[in-house]
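Exercise 7 asks you to align residues with tokens for two separate proteins.
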Amino acid sequence: MAQRDEIGARRRKAERRGHISEYVAAAYLLLKGYRILALRHRTKLGEIDLIARKRDLVIFVEVKARRSEMQALDAVSYASQKRIRAASDLWLQKRKDASGLSQRYDIIAVLPGRFPRHFQDAF
């Protein structure tokens, strides 16, 4: 019983850290001139951490809080990429103003004690 409580506490802590990282990444994109369109956008095919726009470009961002940049990049598996692409297709289909927009898939690594690292066109 105690072990299950410990696992639950770790899971809640990781989820909290992930949510904070998403807010940090969103603030970072705002400072870079992007407009945040959605945070934790859920579809039946999966969730997109951030959707942002700058002029005629919409970016779909996966946010990873890890100890190193490589760990963050490695954490976005092929299956995750496929899920994010499918969810982004649904999002684009539902937007009337999406025609003519370019799209890109980025990763933002949130690292302890450092500014976030933005990997553009990561997948």
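Second protein for Exercise 7:
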Amino acid sequence: MVKDDVGRLTPLGLMVLALLSEGDMHPYEMIRLMRMRRDERLVTITNGTVYHTVSRLEKAGLVSEVGVDREGNRPERTTYTVTDAGARAVVEWVRRELPRVDRPAEFRVALAEAHNLDRGEVIALLLARRTALADAHRALVEGHRFADAKGVPAQYLLEVDRDEALLAADLTWLDGLLVRLDASDFPWGPDVEPSERYIAQRKAARQ
């Protein structure tokens, strides 16, 4: 798969690929499962956008059909699986987005799917992100201080003040996360057992 394919991959497309890495599904099951997990916090989920996304992923060779089912009077449901190219796309997309500070929506999805990478690589990428955040925060503080010295009224600097506080909070949170990730008792990787609630959600979404 070429880099352009990863570049065109949307956050919803990434989440669909990540879902299929858990097992083969039809789009209706994907929609139900994402809603059960409250993934609307991260991406817009509608029947139309999910079906359209799956179609685009299939055309790109990132997913493929594995069967068509019909139960009772329900319409036919096509089940999809993630291809090798699709699995690589997940890793490449997360690797690209995790250290970036200019795409907050993409970062949230990358963080949610960071478990697809090795722990050491995630730590390295987040350290790179921390450096970029610290630089941005430092520049903002200096700009704010300069504006104050020039007598710019505070009412014109409210957004700057908020951004400065948010960056400081993000740095504090990230420092704590890096400590947790570096601890040997923090579970990580494909061998981590899913919770009972997680398993129950998968079963409910199939019905």
